[in-house]
Write the structure tokens for this entry.
Amino acid sequence: MSDWKPRTKMVHAGVKRSQWGEMAEAIHLTQGFVYESAEAAEARFIEAGRDEFIYARYGNPTVRIFEDRIAAIEGTEDAFATASGMAAVNAALTAILKAGDHVVAARALFGSCLYVLDILKRFGVAVTLVDGLDLAAWAKAITPATRAVFFESVSNPTLEVIDIAAVARLAHAAGALVIVDNVFATPVNSRAVELGADIVVYSATKHIDGGGRCLGGVVCGSRDYIRGPLETYLKHTGAALSPFNAWVLLSGMQTLDLRVRAQTASALALAEAVEAHPAVARTLYPGLPSHPQHALAMAQMGAGGTVVSIELKAGQKAAFAFLNALKIWLISNNLGDARSIATHPATTTHQRLPAEQKALLGITPGLVRLSLGIEDTGDLVADVLEALTVI
């Protein structure tokens, strides 16, 4: 399997078939497991083998297939699936941190990620937020007390691209772990591990599902980390992925590569179509040469991704008029779906951030985030251009 290309792994990696030889992955809807004897139960609780299970909160055969498949794609030794993307972020950090530890994080984070960092501060973890694009700021903030650095490889919603390799070098020199939220890069365009990430986190709710059907998350990393502190934390705190959701996510992964490549091509076409539009103040898309980190994005991902953000000159009123005029695009707060989705971050996903923090991050009243689906590219571009005429 190590010689297989990622698209092949997305279909076949991790499959374990029962004695019935089923084609699709089986759904094991069970919370407990039966042992042949009391001695066998004792032995399993002392040390369970890789394909031996105790309780669904600790692991499940269907969930294990999903974990093995995403680890194979990401290039890590192991993975642990969680109930949601935020459960994965919380576990990735909390499993290794204690009072007195220090975390350095990029300031451009999803609001819930910032909330998790605030919780850690309440329990004695020191947190320093930096401009993720400023390597000098990272170098100044990282100290021998720094246990981990954390950032989104591509930030939500302003699409800043952080230099993973450069930040990893600074972190590793101080003995810190590098934790990367890689949702916008996707497992298709990901090179985070190759560039120095120790731990990679995904909200599987997004591109991995791709159909708006279920929640899920996953943490990828070394076997010592995954089956050590992370598994210990998760099995006792209960953020387990449902076997049914794991089965849905496995189905989504079969078309993940095809969907993301099609969405990325559409995103570039849309970005090029609106970049010079008179109603648009800024078009943010890493695939455009005008993007400040365009060269870095191409080196790290090889593509611009599936999301375009535009800032309308006339502010929130124009943004709302634009959203309400769209015919194909759906107004929602998700992304990475097969359906195209439009979001107004300042009043939805990032609504609770203080006004000064929104301004610092570039989340203006006129900013609209556009997640490209798999509809016809021409239809999507025409819909956006027509909606822009109403403002």
The chain has two domains: 6-253, 256-388. The domain at 256-388 is CATH 3.90.1150.10 (Aspartate Aminotransferase, domain 1). The first strand starts at residue 78 and ends at 82.
